[in-house]
Amino acid sequence: MINIENMIKCYNAIMELSLAPEFKDVIKHQHRALLNMEEHSVSKVSVPNYLISAKRGGGITTLVRLLTEYLYAGRVIDFCGTAKSFEFELDYNPPHMFFSELGRLDSTLASYAGFNRFFKGVVCLNIEKWVDHIEGDYFFSLMDYISTNADKLLVVFSVHTEVEDVIDRVEAKIASHLRVESLKLRFPDSRELLDLIETRYLISNGFTLSKDAKALVLKIIAELTVSKSFRGYRTISQLAEDILFSMLKSDDYSSMKITAKMLTCHGIDTTYSRRAKAQGGSKKIIGFMERSV
Fold first, then answer.
1. Residue 189 · residue 240 · CB < 8 Å
2. CA dist 219 → 16, 36, 87, 191, 198 (Å)
3. DSSP alpha helices (H): ranges in 40-136?
4. CATH number assigned to the domain comprising residue 180
5. Which of 281, 285, 274 is nearest to 239 (CA)?
6. Which DSSP string corresponds to 165-232?
7. Residues 176, 195: one domain?
8. Are 173 and 180 in contact, with CB atoms under 8 Å apart?
9. Across residues 12-24, what is the average pLDDT?
10. Residue 223 lies in a domain
């Protein structure tokens, strides 16, 4: 039976997110369906799997966590194992080699089952390395494996691309085996990220940015978002905390208004310009989002 009270609490927390409107729309539709199911005593209908596409660092990890907590709060799906959800990046197997990745996924599921017979819950499966190989037998075997375990797993497939043709092609292939709903996340622009820094970190702590400081931070954000070292919301969070910490450790201001001169004097511009120009790549990660709701 669905736990309506807990589910609504989790739903309200998700709706308070300042970002990810596409994700909130998905939860709204799902929430309405679940409430109608409960009110009209409709036999339990399973929720779909998801294909989430986003720029690297665009928040997939946290959205999967929020989705999992929502489903868990409402007892919408069964959970069994040492975790409610986990992430798994599927490496590519050439067709002339044994499909060892499927065995690795199966072993990982068994390890998360703990002392239980099997794992039940949410798996965030990064299939980015397979987007050019979805017509092969191995991808068919993967979909067949997931379909066979559909009563145990809700799978969130993730890819880091904003190319519509690629997303549509992958979605069509998954849909030929599983119920799937596509969610395309738009990464905020520099102005929206500046607003996030102001509201989440500065204004909430009594600080405001002057006009010239806003222009400087906006420039830094624009440089960071196109750099190879950019890691999405994690990088933006680091920038915000560095600005906040530089103000807290300083005594050269008479008000809580931050000026561009204060940021320049404390090395913010220099530090982040260097990072933006860094040539080293970053380790592949599924994504980052706001730390809390």
1. no
2. 28, 48, 34, 10, 15
3. 60-73, 100-113
4. 3.40.50.300
5. 274
6. HHHHHHHHHHHTTS-EEEEEPPPP-HHHHHHHHIIIIIGGGT-EE-HHHHHHHHHHHHHHHTSTT--T
7. no
8. no
9. 86
10. yes
Q: What is the pLDDT of residues 91-150, one digit of tens each?
A: 999 998 999 999 999 999 999 999 999 999 999 999 999 999 999 999 999 999 999 999
Q: Is residue 172 domain-shared with residue 205, that is, in the same domain?
A: no
Q: To which H or E segment does residue 88 belong?
A: strand 85-89
Angle between helices 211-225 and 190-197 (to 10 degrees): 120
Overall domain count for the chain: 2
Same domain, 22 and 72: yes
pTM: 0.77
Location of structure tokens 């199911």 = 37
Task: With respect to residue 288, please indicate whether it lies within any of the assigned structural domains.
Answer: no
Q: Which tokens hold the place of 227?
A: 């750099």
Q: Which two tokens stand for residue 195?
A: 């607003």
Q: Quote the CA–CA distance of 275 and 227 in Å, as a whole number.
A: 8
